[in-house]
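Here's what a typical entry looks like (PucR family transcriptional regulator):
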Amino acid sequence: MHHQPWPPPSPRVRELIRRGAELALTPPAAWLAELDAATLTGAARRQIAADPVLAAGTRRINRANLLVWAAANVRAPGAPVPANDTEPALAAARDIVRRGLDESALDAYRAGESVAIRLWTQLACTLTSDPGELRELLDVSLRSIAAFVDDTVTAISARMRAERDELTRGSHAERRETVALLLEGAPITRQRAESRLGHALRPPHTAAIVWTDDPGADLRGLDRAADALAEAAGQARPLSVLAGAATRWVWVHGRPDLGQVRAALDELLAVRVALGPTAPGVDGFRRSHLDALTTQQLLARLTSPSRLATHDEVELVALLTADPGSAGRFVRRVLGDLEGAPPEVVEALRVFIAEQCNATRAAARLFAHRNTLLRRLARAERLLPRPLARHTVEVGAALEVLRWRGDPAGRP
């Protein structure tokens, strides 16, 4: 994209821009939080925010765009900055296309631009009190930011078009198209779908979302995890669809052995897996996948550190945390001081409730002496704002939310 050139800044303003850019190279955490909030909120960006891989990619791009522009202005203050079409930005574009989203997803760049302009303006006002210098500084730097974002969006849009063209050709495209038709409930016959997928649809299915949000991860680990799921279910190979550079949609027949899956993930440290329930037929194929997506989205919403989760485990928590703000208030109200208690105290009470308030079974499950468990339960009871005996269901639900939330206490 060609932009109307702007005159080079005066030596004094060049020095001011350089000074501001040096500060921007180490942005305050509040800047990054505001950029992330702007680019991951709103109806247009709901699908990106709900997807852990896309959300992580957006956060990385926010930081990359800020640092690319700032570094360029340290080197050559006020000069045009080339588009950020580096590999991380292009990888994010590929993932957006593979989720079936179009260029409207790039609206996040514009939302980020608005925040960046406001933050830069605030910073510029601290660099000089001279109205003439400030006017020139803002004129040059705001033109530069706008041109940089325009050029970057143009480059990323071109990459998305190329990626879309690539996805419409070949066997992968046919497999992905068939899966999309099944998930949408389109009128494709079971026999035709099985022929195109090479995968029987009558038996019970377990769907999985296999992904990584580590930008440095070896993506071959995703395919190894998919194979491990099939092996854990006693079959030769899974049905696996490339949903994004860092995500696989996987189906296996039957129910994988979770112990085997956990053992495999111990060797694939950057890989995460969300499992749906096991259900038969085309409807089971679809329903298990949608529940696996719900599970993955819950882990993202709660910033959970868990690397393996099943829908059966998190279904109640998913319902309770649809509104994270309300869920947080519920946990604080029900648990009181217990919310911040040591993990062993929180876990003791959670397991005690899960074992129907049977101390002997809870102690065995925790591999703890019964007296140790009773001391922890007594401490937990003192920290609760209301008696446990009258509010067991509420406390149990709040502890499950805490278990899956990205908190030091109660992590699975």
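Residues 407-412 have pLDDT under 50 and may be disordered.

More examples are in the samples folder.
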